[in-house]
Amino acid sequence: MPSAIAYASKSPTDTLKPFNFERRDPTARDVEIEILFCGVCHSDLHTARNEWQNTVYPCVPGHEIVGRVTRVGSHVSKFKVGDLAAVGCMVDSCQECPNCSQHMEQFCEKGAIFTYNAPDKHTDGGHTFGGYSNSVTVDEAFVLSVPENLDLAATAPLLCAGITTYSPIKRWGIKKGDKVGVVGLGGLGHMALKFAHAFGAKVVLFTTSPGKADDAKRLGADEVVISKNENEMNAHLGSFDFIIDCVSAEHDINIYLNLLKIDGTLTLVGAPEKPLPVSSFSLIFGRKILTGSLIGGIKETQEMLDFCGEHNITSDIEMIDIDYVNTAYDRLLKSDVKYRFVIDMKSLRK
Protein backbone atom coordinates (compact mmCIF):
# COMPACT_ATOMS: atom_id res chain seq x y z
CA MET A 1 0.00 0.00 0.00
CA PRO A 2 1.30 3.49 -0.84
CA SER A 3 2.53 5.66 1.99
CA ALA A 4 0.73 8.97 2.37
CA ILE A 5 1.54 12.18 4.18
CA ALA A 6 -1.05 14.53 5.62
CA TYR A 7 -1.91 17.00 8.34
CA ALA A 8 -4.09 15.60 11.14
CA SER A 9 -5.42 16.42 14.58
CA LYS A 10 -5.21 13.73 17.26
CA SER A 11 -7.51 15.26 19.88
CA PRO A 12 -10.06 18.07 20.14
CA THR A 13 -7.43 20.40 21.60
CA ASP A 14 -4.63 19.38 19.25
CA THR A 15 -3.45 21.54 16.37
CA LEU A 16 -3.10 19.97 12.95
CA LYS A 17 0.34 18.42 12.52
CA PRO A 18 2.18 16.21 10.01
CA PHE A 19 0.84 12.65 9.93
CA ASN A 20 1.90 9.53 8.03
CA PHE A 21 -0.42 6.68 7.07
CA GLU A 22 -1.16 4.26 4.22
CA ARG A 23 -3.69 4.61 1.43
CA ARG A 24 -5.05 1.45 -0.17
CA ASP A 25 -3.89 0.21 -3.55
CA PRO A 26 -6.59 0.88 -6.16
CA THR A 27 -9.17 -1.88 -6.52
CA ALA A 28 -10.56 -2.67 -9.97
CA ARG A 29 -13.04 0.23 -9.66
CA ASP A 30 -10.77 2.76 -7.96
CA VAL A 31 -9.05 5.93 -9.09
CA GLU A 32 -5.88 7.12 -7.34
CA ILE A 33 -5.42 10.89 -7.36
CA GLU A 34 -2.46 13.10 -6.55
CA ILE A 35 -4.04 15.99 -4.63
CA LEU A 36 -3.00 19.38 -5.98
CA PHE A 37 -5.37 21.64 -4.04
CA CYS A 38 -7.76 21.23 -1.13
CA GLY A 39 -10.24 23.80 0.14
CA VAL A 40 -10.71 24.56 3.83
CA CYS A 41 -14.35 24.23 4.88
CA HIS A 42 -15.85 25.32 8.20
CA SER A 43 -16.89 21.67 8.62
CA ASP A 44 -13.20 20.78 8.74
CA LEU A 45 -12.75 22.99 11.78
CA HIS A 46 -15.88 21.66 13.50
CA THR A 47 -14.73 18.09 12.97
CA ALA A 48 -11.06 18.55 13.86
CA ARG A 49 -12.11 20.13 17.16
CA ASN A 50 -14.93 17.62 17.80
CA GLU A 51 -17.51 20.39 18.01
CA TRP A 52 -20.17 18.03 16.62
CA GLN A 53 -19.19 15.34 19.16
CA ASN A 54 -18.62 12.63 16.56
CA THR A 55 -14.95 12.86 15.59
CA VAL A 56 -12.77 9.76 15.34
CA TYR A 57 -9.07 10.48 15.77
CA PRO A 58 -6.65 10.86 14.15
CA CYS A 59 -8.64 13.19 11.91
CA VAL A 60 -7.42 14.24 8.46
CA PRO A 61 -9.96 16.83 7.23
CA GLY A 62 -10.59 18.04 3.70
CA HIS A 63 -13.42 17.39 1.23
CA GLU A 64 -12.82 19.97 -1.49
CA ILE A 65 -10.23 18.08 -3.51
CA VAL A 66 -8.80 18.74 -6.97
CA GLY A 67 -5.94 16.72 -8.40
CA ARG A 68 -4.57 14.57 -11.19
CA VAL A 69 -5.09 10.85 -11.76
CA THR A 70 -2.00 8.74 -11.10
CA ARG A 71 -3.42 5.18 -11.25
CA VAL A 72 -6.69 3.52 -12.23
CA GLY A 73 -8.15 0.07 -11.61
CA SER A 74 -8.73 -2.43 -14.39
CA HIS A 75 -12.50 -1.77 -14.58
CA VAL A 76 -12.27 2.04 -14.58
CA SER A 77 -13.65 3.51 -17.80
CA LYS A 78 -14.20 7.23 -17.13
CA PHE A 79 -10.67 8.25 -16.15
CA LYS A 80 -7.13 7.62 -17.30
CA VAL A 81 -3.74 8.52 -15.89
CA GLY A 82 -3.08 12.24 -16.28
CA ASP A 83 -6.72 13.35 -16.20
CA LEU A 84 -7.83 16.16 -13.93
CA ALA A 85 -10.20 14.86 -11.26
CA ALA A 86 -12.08 16.06 -8.19
CA VAL A 87 -13.54 14.56 -5.03
CA GLY A 88 -16.16 16.22 -2.86
CA CYS A 89 -17.85 15.36 0.41
CA MET A 90 -18.50 11.66 -0.32
CA VAL A 91 -16.32 8.76 -1.39
CA ASP A 92 -18.88 5.93 -1.35
CA SER A 93 -22.43 4.78 -0.57
CA CYS A 94 -24.37 1.54 -0.94
CA GLN A 95 -25.13 2.57 -4.56
CA GLU A 96 -28.26 0.35 -4.45
CA CYS A 97 -30.95 1.91 -2.24
CA PRO A 98 -33.77 4.04 -3.72
CA ASN A 99 -32.00 7.29 -2.85
CA CYS A 100 -28.72 6.20 -4.43
CA SER A 101 -30.64 4.95 -7.49
CA GLN A 102 -32.10 8.44 -7.84
CA HIS A 103 -28.62 10.02 -7.70
CA MET A 104 -29.04 11.27 -4.13
CA GLU A 105 -26.12 9.43 -2.57
CA GLN A 106 -25.87 12.01 0.20
CA PHE A 107 -29.11 10.51 1.55
CA CYS A 108 -28.05 6.86 1.18
CA GLU A 109 -30.33 4.74 3.37
CA LYS A 110 -27.35 2.77 4.64
CA GLY A 111 -25.36 5.95 5.23
CA ALA A 112 -23.15 7.83 2.81
CA ILE A 113 -19.45 7.32 3.38
CA PHE A 114 -18.03 10.80 3.72
CA THR A 115 -14.55 11.77 2.62
CA TYR A 116 -13.23 11.94 6.16
CA ASN A 117 -14.31 10.83 9.63
CA ALA A 118 -16.57 8.08 8.27
CA PRO A 119 -16.35 4.27 8.51
CA ASP A 120 -14.04 2.95 5.80
CA LYS A 121 -15.33 -0.32 4.37
CA HIS A 122 -11.88 -1.03 2.94
CA THR A 123 -10.27 -1.27 6.38
CA ASP A 124 -11.08 -3.33 9.43
CA GLY A 125 -12.59 -0.82 11.83
CA GLY A 126 -10.81 2.12 10.24
CA HIS A 127 -12.15 5.46 9.11
CA THR A 128 -11.69 7.68 6.08
CA PHE A 129 -8.94 10.29 5.80
CA GLY A 130 -9.55 13.45 3.82
CA GLY A 131 -7.85 15.83 1.45
CA TYR A 132 -5.22 17.51 3.65
CA SER A 133 -3.02 14.84 2.12
CA ASN A 134 -0.84 14.18 -0.87
CA SER A 135 -3.16 11.53 -2.37
CA VAL A 136 -6.56 9.89 -2.18
CA THR A 137 -8.01 6.68 -3.63
CA VAL A 138 -11.72 6.70 -4.45
CA ASP A 139 -14.33 4.56 -6.22
CA GLU A 140 -14.71 5.80 -9.80
CA ALA A 141 -18.43 6.44 -9.20
CA PHE A 142 -17.52 9.21 -6.76
CA VAL A 143 -14.80 10.90 -8.81
CA LEU A 144 -15.70 14.00 -10.81
CA SER A 145 -14.34 15.52 -14.01
CA VAL A 146 -12.96 19.06 -13.89
CA PRO A 147 -13.56 21.46 -16.82
CA GLU A 148 -10.21 22.29 -18.38
CA ASN A 149 -10.87 26.04 -18.54
CA LEU A 150 -11.29 26.54 -14.79
CA ASP A 151 -8.53 27.61 -12.41
CA LEU A 152 -7.81 24.45 -10.44
CA ALA A 153 -7.20 26.04 -7.04
CA ALA A 154 -10.34 28.16 -7.29
CA THR A 155 -12.32 25.10 -8.39
CA ALA A 156 -11.63 23.17 -5.18
CA PRO A 157 -14.27 24.93 -3.01
CA LEU A 158 -16.92 24.16 -5.62
CA LEU A 159 -16.86 20.58 -4.32
CA CYS A 160 -18.62 21.70 -1.11
CA ALA A 161 -19.46 25.41 -1.04
CA GLY A 162 -20.39 25.26 -4.72
CA ILE A 163 -22.70 22.26 -4.72
CA THR A 164 -24.21 23.23 -1.34
CA THR A 165 -25.57 26.45 -2.86
CA TYR A 166 -26.12 25.28 -6.44
CA SER A 167 -28.32 22.33 -5.44
CA PRO A 168 -31.16 24.23 -3.72
CA ILE A 169 -31.14 27.00 -6.32
CA LYS A 170 -31.60 24.33 -9.00
CA ARG A 171 -34.00 22.25 -6.87
CA TRP A 172 -36.43 25.14 -6.42
CA GLY A 173 -36.38 26.11 -10.08
CA ILE A 174 -34.85 29.56 -9.87
CA LYS A 175 -35.11 31.25 -13.23
CA LYS A 176 -34.59 34.55 -14.97
CA GLY A 177 -36.56 37.32 -13.29
CA ASP A 178 -37.07 35.58 -9.94
CA LYS A 179 -36.22 37.60 -6.85
CA VAL A 180 -33.66 35.74 -4.74
CA GLY A 181 -32.23 36.68 -1.37
CA VAL A 182 -28.88 35.51 -0.01
CA VAL A 183 -28.35 35.74 3.74
CA GLY A 184 -24.70 36.13 4.72
CA LEU A 185 -21.59 36.76 2.64
CA GLY A 186 -18.98 34.11 3.37
CA GLY A 187 -17.78 30.91 1.74
CA LEU A 188 -21.34 29.74 1.00
CA GLY A 189 -22.90 33.15 0.47
CA HIS A 190 -20.45 34.32 -2.15
CA MET A 191 -21.13 31.18 -4.21
CA ALA A 192 -24.89 31.63 -3.80
CA LEU A 193 -24.57 35.15 -5.22
CA LYS A 194 -22.63 33.89 -8.23
CA PHE A 195 -25.06 31.06 -8.99
CA ALA A 196 -28.27 33.05 -8.48
CA HIS A 197 -26.88 35.77 -10.76
CA ALA A 198 -25.89 33.18 -13.39
CA PHE A 199 -29.43 31.74 -13.30
CA GLY A 200 -30.73 35.22 -14.20
CA ALA A 201 -32.36 36.12 -10.89
CA LYS A 202 -32.60 39.54 -9.32
CA VAL A 203 -30.29 38.99 -6.34
CA VAL A 204 -30.35 40.76 -2.98
CA LEU A 205 -27.71 40.18 -0.30
CA PHE A 206 -28.64 40.48 3.37
CA THR A 207 -25.72 41.30 5.62
CA THR A 208 -24.99 42.94 8.97
CA SER A 209 -21.84 44.54 7.51
CA PRO A 210 -22.24 47.70 5.38
CA GLY A 211 -18.62 47.33 4.29
CA LYS A 212 -19.49 44.25 2.23
CA ALA A 213 -21.78 46.08 -0.19
CA ASP A 214 -19.25 46.75 -2.97
CA ASP A 215 -17.88 43.23 -2.89
CA ALA A 216 -21.39 41.76 -2.94
CA LYS A 217 -22.23 43.69 -6.09
CA ARG A 218 -19.00 42.53 -7.71
CA LEU A 219 -20.04 38.95 -6.96
CA GLY A 220 -23.50 39.29 -8.48
CA ALA A 221 -25.81 41.11 -6.06
CA ASP A 222 -28.14 43.70 -7.57
CA GLU A 223 -28.88 45.19 -4.16
CA VAL A 224 -27.50 44.97 -0.63
CA VAL A 225 -29.75 45.23 2.43
CA ILE A 226 -28.39 45.79 5.93
CA SER A 227 -30.43 43.32 7.95
CA LYS A 228 -30.21 45.46 11.11
CA ASN A 229 -31.94 48.32 9.33
CA GLU A 230 -35.69 47.87 9.89
CA ASN A 231 -36.68 50.29 7.15
CA GLU A 232 -34.54 48.55 4.55
CA MET A 233 -35.96 45.18 5.55
CA ASN A 234 -39.57 46.38 5.55
CA ALA A 235 -39.16 47.70 2.02
CA HIS A 236 -38.90 44.08 0.84
CA LEU A 237 -41.78 42.50 2.80
CA GLY A 238 -43.60 39.78 0.85
CA SER A 239 -41.51 40.16 -2.30
CA PHE A 240 -39.06 37.23 -2.54
CA ASP A 241 -39.54 34.03 -4.50
CA PHE A 242 -36.63 32.32 -2.79
CA ILE A 243 -34.13 33.01 -0.01
CA ILE A 244 -31.03 30.92 0.70
CA ASP A 245 -29.74 31.29 4.26
CA CYS A 246 -25.99 30.71 4.47
CA VAL A 247 -25.43 31.80 8.09
CA SER A 248 -24.07 29.33 10.64
CA ALA A 249 -24.46 31.61 13.66
CA GLU A 250 -27.60 32.18 15.71
CA HIS A 251 -29.97 34.60 13.99
CA ASP A 252 -33.69 35.33 13.56
CA ILE A 253 -34.97 33.50 10.48
CA ASN A 254 -38.52 34.83 11.01
CA ILE A 255 -37.52 38.21 9.64
CA TYR A 256 -36.55 36.48 6.38
CA LEU A 257 -39.67 34.30 6.26
CA ASN A 258 -41.67 37.54 6.38
CA LEU A 259 -39.92 38.71 3.21
CA LEU A 260 -41.20 35.77 1.14
CA LYS A 261 -44.10 35.92 -1.29
CA ILE A 262 -47.03 33.54 -0.93
CA ASP A 263 -45.59 30.04 -1.44
CA GLY A 264 -42.07 31.45 -1.26
CA THR A 265 -39.23 29.23 -0.04
CA LEU A 266 -36.49 29.76 2.52
CA THR A 267 -33.74 27.13 2.36
CA LEU A 268 -31.19 26.67 5.14
CA VAL A 269 -27.68 25.64 4.10
CA GLY A 270 -25.84 27.14 7.06
CA ALA A 271 -25.68 24.97 10.18
CA PRO A 272 -26.08 26.96 13.41
CA GLU A 273 -24.99 25.05 16.49
CA LYS A 274 -28.26 25.74 18.33
CA PRO A 275 -31.86 25.37 17.06
CA LEU A 276 -33.41 28.44 15.45
CA PRO A 277 -36.86 29.38 16.82
CA VAL A 278 -39.55 29.56 14.15
CA SER A 279 -42.86 31.35 14.62
CA SER A 280 -45.77 29.36 13.21
CA PHE A 281 -47.32 32.62 12.05
CA SER A 282 -44.26 33.32 9.88
CA LEU A 283 -45.16 30.18 7.94
CA ILE A 284 -48.95 30.14 8.12
CA PHE A 285 -49.49 33.64 6.78
CA GLY A 286 -48.40 33.29 3.19
CA ARG A 287 -48.11 29.49 3.07
CA LYS A 288 -44.34 29.81 3.28
CA ILE A 289 -41.96 26.89 2.85
CA LEU A 290 -39.01 26.38 5.19
CA THR A 291 -36.59 23.70 4.04
CA GLY A 292 -32.96 22.61 4.18
CA SER A 293 -30.43 21.20 1.75
CA LEU A 294 -27.38 18.96 2.09
CA ILE A 295 -24.66 19.19 -0.61
CA GLY A 296 -25.85 17.26 -3.71
CA GLY A 297 -25.56 13.88 -5.36
CA ILE A 298 -22.68 12.95 -7.65
CA LYS A 299 -24.65 13.49 -10.86
CA GLU A 300 -25.76 16.93 -9.71
CA THR A 301 -22.24 17.82 -8.55
CA GLN A 302 -20.90 16.99 -12.03
CA GLU A 303 -23.71 19.08 -13.52
CA MET A 304 -22.64 21.96 -11.25
CA LEU A 305 -19.01 21.67 -12.33
CA ASP A 306 -20.04 21.64 -16.01
CA PHE A 307 -22.26 24.70 -15.38
CA CYS A 308 -19.27 26.45 -13.80
CA GLY A 309 -17.17 25.56 -16.82
CA GLU A 310 -19.78 27.02 -19.17
CA HIS A 311 -20.17 30.22 -17.13
CA ASN A 312 -16.56 30.51 -15.93
CA ILE A 313 -17.58 30.38 -12.26
CA THR A 314 -15.05 29.60 -9.52
CA SER A 315 -14.62 30.55 -5.89
CA ASP A 316 -12.79 33.63 -4.64
CA ILE A 317 -9.88 32.16 -2.70
CA GLU A 318 -6.85 32.88 -0.57
CA MET A 319 -4.09 30.35 -1.25
CA ILE A 320 -2.14 29.05 1.73
CA ASP A 321 0.58 26.55 2.51
CA ILE A 322 -0.33 23.56 4.66
CA ASP A 323 1.66 24.79 7.65
CA TYR A 324 -0.60 27.87 7.79
CA VAL A 325 -3.77 25.80 8.28
CA ASN A 326 -4.02 26.28 12.06
CA THR A 327 -3.83 30.05 11.61
CA ALA A 328 -6.41 29.75 8.83
CA TYR A 329 -8.76 28.01 11.28
CA ASP A 330 -8.38 30.90 13.74
CA ARG A 331 -9.08 33.40 10.98
CA LEU A 332 -12.04 31.35 9.80
CA LEU A 333 -13.65 31.77 13.21
CA LYS A 334 -13.36 35.54 12.72
CA SER A 335 -14.74 35.38 9.15
CA ASP A 336 -11.38 36.78 8.09
CA VAL A 337 -11.16 35.33 4.58
CA LYS A 338 -12.45 36.32 1.15
CA TYR A 339 -13.95 33.83 0.71
CA ARG A 340 -12.34 30.42 0.96
CA PHE A 341 -8.90 29.22 2.00
CA VAL A 342 -7.33 26.72 -0.39
CA ILE A 343 -4.24 24.70 0.49
CA ASP A 344 -1.55 24.37 -2.17
CA MET A 345 -0.60 20.74 -1.61
CA LYS A 346 2.85 21.04 -3.07
CA SER A 347 3.66 22.74 0.24
CA LEU A 348 3.00 19.41 1.98
CA ARG A 349 5.88 17.82 0.07
CA LYS A 350 8.29 20.41 1.47
Walkthrough of the structure:
The protein folds into 2 domains: 3-159 and 296-347, Medium-chain alcohol dehydrogenases, catalytic domain (Quinone Oxidoreductase, Chain A, domain 1, Alpha-Beta Complex); 162-292, Rossmann fold, CATH 3.40.50.720. The chain has 11 helices and 17 strands. It has helices spanning 42-48, 98-101, 152-155, 161-171, 187-198, 213-219, 230-234, 254-257, 280-284, 298-311, 325-333; strands at residues 3-8, 17-22, 30-40, 65-72, 84-87, 90-92, 113-114, 135-139, 144-145, 179-183, 202-207, 223-226, 240-245, 260-268, 289-292, 317-320, 340-344. Strands 3, 4, 5, 8, 9, 16 and 17 form a 7-stranded mixed beta sheet that branches. Strands 12-11-10-13-14-15 form a 6-stranded parallel beta sheet, covered by helices on one side. Helix 9 (280-284) links the parallel strand 14 (260-268) and strand 15. The mean pLDDT is 96.
